[in-house]
Amino acid sequence: MVKPVGSHCNLRCTYCYYLPTPNTVPRMSDETLERFVTQYIAASPGPEVSFVWHGGEPTLAGLDFYRRVVELQARHLPPGWTAWNNLQTNGVLLDDEWCAFLAGHRFDVGVSIDGTRAIHDAGRPDPRGRGSYQAAVTAVRRLQAHGVQPDLLCTVTDATTRAPLAVYRSLRALGTGWLQFIPVLGHVDGEAYGDFLGAIFDEWVYNDLGRTEVQLFAETARLLAGGTAGVCWLAPTCGRALVVEADGSVYSCDHFVNPAHRLGDVATADLGDLARSPRQRAFGDAKRTLPAQCRQCPWLTLCRGGCPKDRLPDGVNHLCGGLTRFYAHAVPRIRRVIGLTRLGHAPAQIMAQLRTEARGR
Question: Which residue out of 121, 208, 254, 310 is catalytically annotated?
Answer without folding.
Answer: 254
